[in-house]
Predict the 3D structure of the following.
Amino acid sequence: MDSNQKGSGRAKVARRFRRIHRLALPGEVFAGDATRWMEQELAGREILDWWRSLLSERLTGASPQPLSFYLHVPFCRSRCRYCQFDSLVPADEGALETFVGDMEEEARCFLEALGPVSTTTVAVGGGTPSLLTEAHWERLTRALFEGLVHRPAGAYFSVEMNPDTTTAGKVAILAAAGANRLSLGVQSLSEDALRKSGRSYQDLAGLERAVRDVRTAPSLHLNLDLLAPLAGETFGSFREGVEGVLALDPDAVTLYRYQSVIRGGQRLEPGLFAFEAASRELIEAGEAAGYGFRLETRTATILMRRAPEWADSRYEHHPDTPASVMAFGPFGESHVYGHGLYRTVFRDDGGMAHRGTRVSREWECRSYAARLVARMQPIDRVDFERRFGRDPGDLFRDEFGFLEEVGRMELGKETIRPLFRDAAEAGLYAGLMFDDETIEHLARLQASREHGRLNTDDGRR
Ligand code: SF4
């Protein structure tokens, strides 16, 4: 590349940066939410075409192999005050019946169009999957796991349940369908914390009964979830909770970090101790009780008695790209690698629709780089090339050159390091990883939102 080409490439990037700066989009748009901003209503047949293409590319090795199946059951008996998940309280029994019927119909359409789909992991979450009845689960497992969704023996198949709605019958149906992990959302054993969180319906006797129900299926790995620091919880009550949970002899305990949310203008304040202290307490008590396998991330600490055969599988339903996710159920988010992303939403008339964005393979690696930049994480050149078959130094030559010139990036042979002052600046510069066409598209959407117009399909891509 001669210096003229280099100069015009950098000038183009500088113009893009000025455009991004003027747009003043929220930082999260570039940190992973760009597709949410660009989404539009999609026809079911287009989505099936994406899947058809991806599955045939997978067969020839032209597309990545990981493909997770996720079923989102969008209902809860009431809303916990701390909850950030997508769920709603059903108006009546009929809403559950309609949901199950819709899932059966969607499974039938997918099977007819695609044949059996071979997946690498399966997860059922929500909401509260155990809110569905045994009869509902009979129908869903038949429609999904005896027809559409296949997976290798021993692959990760996890189901989330609430203790108060777990029954031995539901456990047996899910275990027979191939589930090998069942996770009970305990969150806390403190009466005060449960009351403040809106979970007064939960008590220790109910939890003990649910654990006995899960233990009727010996193939299931039982995990108990805790959340800390919850409002109303003291360090002393948390410690007692850890002892109480370990006394139930689960195969694993997962402690999640409480993330403060504002709901209906109200914030549920966290308890007055640090997640790190809670995590240390769990690790010490767990190791003393023989839990030898440990996994720590920024948001969770996981202890297991021993690693199961699927321990290497992702705990997340959305593994880092390149991978695909086939999600069923309202709020479920699907990713058809190199083709599109979409989620299922309720329409005003109670029916379901799909909203999403078409994406290209080029977009996939740009979006991945943007996420790393927005999180101020270094880019490992070898890892990036392994994932996408392209050296990020080549792909983003002008962008990284510009960032180096303005002192915001250090270009090493092996690692490219962001040098941003704070997260806001990182979010802004992350926009540079997208192409001009994407930035222009976001600008048009921003303008139409500001003018209160609806987001309509403009035939992009
Ligand atoms: S039961 Fe789970 S998904 Fe439902 S509101 Fe409570 S935390 Fe959220």
Q: What stands out?
A: The two ends are 29 Å apart (CA to CA). DSSP finds 16 helices and 20 strands in the chain. The first helix runs from residue 3 to 23. Residues 76, 79-80, 83, 85, 87, 126-128, 162, 185 surround iron/sulfur cluster (CB under 6 Å).
